[in-house]
């Protein structure tokens, strides 16, 4: 009876470990996607700022 209980507990623990690993992988992917989107937004944002700066300099010089 004790062996049966320990087998059930071991299987449950193994299932919980698998669920934890999947959640950890999902978190890693979400963090990676966030970083990529944030970098793309930052690049696009700084690109627009640079263009506005270039335009204002061009207007001032002309």
UniProtKB/TrEMBL annotation:
Name the record gives this protein: Uncharacterized protein
Organism: Sinocyclocheilus rhinocerous
């Amino acid at each position: 009876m004790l062996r049966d209980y320990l087998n059930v507990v071991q299987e449950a623990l193994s299932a919980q470990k698998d669920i934890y690993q999947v959640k950890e992988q999902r978190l890693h992917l979400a963090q990676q996607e966030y970083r990529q989107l944030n970098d793309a937004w930052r690049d696009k944002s700084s690109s627009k700022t640079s263009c506005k700066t270039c335009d204002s300099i061009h207007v001032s010089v002309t």
